[in-house]
Specification:
Blueprint (H helix, E strand, L loop, with lengths): L8 H5 L2 E4 L5 H12 L3 E6 L3 H14 L4 E5 L9 H11 L4 E4 L14 H29 L2 E5 L12 H21 L4 E7 L10 H9 L9 H13 L8 E4 L8
Parallel strand pairs: 1-2, 1-4, 2-3, 4-5, 5-6, 6-7
Length: about 250
C-alpha cells in the first residue's frame, strides 16, 4: 500500500532509499539514520504492519511526506517490481536499494525440510537478486548503489544453521557478481554484522562467550550497521564489490 505524495523541490533533490524488512531491528534503525541525513524512504514490510506504520508516522512528523510504506511478500518474485515502482511513482527515482529482509532459524541436518530451504534461500538470496535486477535500470539513471546485509557466517558457517549460512554465502557472491555486472554505473557492496542482535533462545553464557571472541570485547549495536550503510551511500564513491564486516574483529579470531 502506497500513497502518491505532492512533489516539492526538497523531495525532488533528496536521495531515495528502498529498505526491505524495515519495520524493526536493523532495518528500522537504518531507516531512521538515513532519514535523519535527508533521505526519503520506501519502507517495506511483510507482516509487521503496526510497527511499519508507527515508524512511518514518526519520521513523517519530522519531515512531511518523506516516507511511504509498501507491503509485500518477497517470495512472490512477480510482485517485486512493485516495490521499485512505488519509489518511481512517488519521487520519480531510486538512489539506493538495501536488501535487508532475512529469514533466520536453525535447520539441523536430518531435520531440514524443502520448505525451509525455499524460505531461507528465497528471502536471503533469490529475492535480493530479482529485486536488484528490477531496480538496476533506475539505479543506473541516478548512479546509485545496492547494499546487501549479509553475515559473518557467510564465511564461517554457524553450527546448526547450514541453509542460512549457504544463503548468505550466496548473497556475498551475488554482491561481487553484481558489482561486476552493474559497474561502472551502480556500486554494489555488503555489510556483514557480527554480534549485534542475539538469536532467540541464546542464553547469557553463550552471549558472553561470543563477545569474548571479539577484539573489542563488547557487543555491537544496530546503529553500527546503519552508520556503515550511510558511509557506503555517501562517502564510498570508489568502493564496490566489497564486504565490510562490522563485528568488533570477531571474524579475525580463529
Amino acid at each position: 500500500m502506497t500513497n502518491k505524495l505532492s512533489r516539492n523541490s526538497d523531495s525532488d533533490n533528496a536521495r531515495v532509499a528502498l529498505i526491505t524488512g524495515a519495520a524493526h531491528r536493523i532495518g528500522a534503525t537504518t531507516a531512521k539514520l538515513l532519514h535523519q541525513n535527508g533521505m526519503n524512504i520506501v519502507l517495506h514490510y511483510r507482516g509487521s504492519r503496526e510497527k511499519a506504520q508507527a515508524l512511518q508516522n514518526e519520521l513523517n512528523k519530522i519531515r512531511e511526506n518523506s516516507v511511504i510504506l509498501i507491503q509485500a511478500d518477497l517470495h512472490n518474485t512477480s510482485g517485486l517490481p512493485a516495490l521499485i515502482e512505488a519509489s518511481i511513482k512517488t519521487w520519480g527515482k531510486l538512489d539506493v536499494l538495501i536488501n535487508n529482509a532475512s529469514s533466520f532459524y536453525p535447520t539441523q541436518i536430518g531435520k531440514a525440510t524443502e520448505d525451509q530451504w525455499d524460505d531461507l534461500i528465497g528471502s536471503n538470496l533469490k529475492a535480493p537478486f530479482f529485486l536488484s535486477q528490477a531496480a538496476a535500470p533506475y539505479l543506473k539513471e541516478t548512479q546509485g548503489c545496492i547494499i546487501n546485509i549479509v553475515d559473518i557466517h557467510a564465511e564461517r558457517p554457524l553450527k546448526t544453521f547450514p541453509i542460512y549460512s549457504m544463503a548468505k554465502a550466496g548473497l556475498v557472491m551475488m554482491t561481487k557478481s553484481l558489482a561486476g555486472e552493474l559497474g561502472p554505473d551502480i556500486r554494489v557492496n555488503a555489510v556483514a554484522p557480527g554480534a549485534i542482535l542475539w538469536p532467540e533462545n541464546l542464553d547469557e553464557v553463550a552471549q558472553q562467550r561470543i563477545v569474548s571472541r571479539t577484539f573489542l570485547k563488547r557487543q555491537g549495536e544496530p546503529n553500527d550497521i546503519a552508520k556503515t550503510i550511510l558511509f557506503l551511500i555517501q562517502n564510498a564513491d570508489y568502493i564496490t564489490g566489497q564486504i565490510i564486516a562490522v563485528d568488533g574483529g570477531r571474524s579475525l579470531n580463529t
